[in-house]
Amino acid sequence: SIQSDVAQQVVAAVAGTLEESDREMLAAAPTEDSEAYDLYLQAREYHHQPAGGVEEMQSAEELYERALMLDPEFALAHAALSELHGGFYWLAVDPSPTRAEAQLKEAEAALRLAPDLPEAHKAMGWYHYTQRDWPAAMEEYEVASRGMPSDLRLTQQIGFLHRRMGNWDRVFEAFDRATRIEPRNADVYTDLGGLTLQLVRRYEDAIRAYDRALTLAPHFHTAALERADTYRKLTGEADTLRATLKRLPENHPGVRLYRIGLLFSDGKPDSVLQLLRSGEPTRDNSAGYSPASLTAARAHLMLGDSASARAAFDSALVVLDSMITAAGDDWRPHASRGRALAGLGQREEALGEVQWLKASRAYREDAFVSPLIGANVARILAEIGEHEAAVDEIEGELARPGFLTVDALRRSPSWDALRNNSRFQALLAGDE
């Protein structure tokens, strides 16, 4: 009661008037059990930490469950726990069917207890999102939005959903609304703004978005890396990226990945191997599930050491085979496995992974990750000698929103197998 009253007074003093839906939301008592509510608030702190990892997620899960033991009819906690289960599933921390079932069960419980609760519809929307059912997710998000018109996370999620669907104008509408809801949130400018602008190849606008993010959060290392990489896409020069990498902490996962990429572009595979000895590269959405041994295999090939390359490809394949079962429909281990098979000369098996990737829902229906899958498909095809098919894929990727650039094709050794292909040469020359 006190919390609601204070919140309404603050908003009234700062912003004038509250929308009716906001006033109703603030006035609602989510539970009569103060201890359950306290546990819920603690869980949210862990759940929404900007740099939170698996340990924070696990702490949040335990606290939400304790809150629900005290008040099983706490609909808001059911909704929050559902979204947390979705995070475990979507981020591949636990991509098991059991986790997805738990996510759905909690969302259904929230809706059963409070059919009009916006957070319950938001949780059900997130469930459909994690199952890649974009229309169902949008339907639930629109219902939630009517009751939470000023919720930043929901606004972002609607923008991300439009990005998955390839509705670029609607993405930027959500971006504009998010910056008006919370104009000092650097993450909004970095992800919904900068990353989307990169995707549609509006590089100068993306750089401005990253500049805004860094003005708000000067130590936001991800924004600094993305800005430097975007500048390289715009100009073709890597000096800005090199300078950025020098001043960022070595333990940031993106620093290591970009450093390895630069070493390959600079033709320094021996330095790549030296860097790999200091630890395992961190996986991320763009690199996929890429074991250190797969990266090492590429370096050995550049050095002409075919025996060491083959041993490294074999090691990578063992790791990736163990990932495939647990990864569900995640495309990333399949992409890395395809490259390992190609490196081992197992042409038919590599083609099998190409077919899996091109048949995946992510490739067919997800405008955000489909370009990443397409680039991996092209690499596998190039490495097994299917050069014309590889160039077909590359041309398709360059003709639509995506992250692949002609400059990257020109400088990265990943495309060396295509250097003598006349269509590939014409593609590179056409951008000069």
Structural class: mainly alpha
Task: Tell me the overall shape.
Answer: globular
Give start-end ranges of low-pLDDT stretches: 282-288
Let me know the average pLDDT.
Answer: 91
Please describe the biggest sheet, giving its number of strands, its sense, and whether it closes into a barrel: none
DSSP strand content = under 5%
* Rg, alpha carbons: 23 Å
Number of helices: 25
Distance between the termini: 66 Å
Question: What topology does this entry show?
Answer:
Layout (H helix, E strand, L loop, with lengths): L1 H14 L4 H8 L6 H14 L6 H17 L4 H16 L6 H17 L4 H13 L3 H14 L4 H14 L2 H14 L4 H14 L3 H14 L4 H15 L3 H9 L5 H13 L3 H8 L15 H11 L3 H21 L5 H12 L3 H13 L1 H5 L4 H14 L3 H12 L7 H6 L10 H8 L3
Helix pairs in contact: 3-4, 4-5, 5-6, 5-7, 6-7, 7-8, 8-9, 9-10, 10-11, 11-12, 11-13, 12-13, 13-14, 16-17, 17-18, 18-19, 19-20, 19-22, 20-22, 22-23
Would you mind describing this structure in some detail?
This protein has helices at residues 2-15, 20-27, 34-47, 54-70, 75-90, 97-113, 118-130, 134-147, 152-165, 168-181, 186-199, 203-216, 221-235, 239-247, 253-265, 269-276, 292-302, 306-326, 332-343, 347-359, 361-365, 370-383, 387-398, 406-411, 422-429. With 432 residues, the chain is an all-alpha fold. The radius of gyration is 23 Å and the shape is globular. It starts with a helix and ends with a helix.
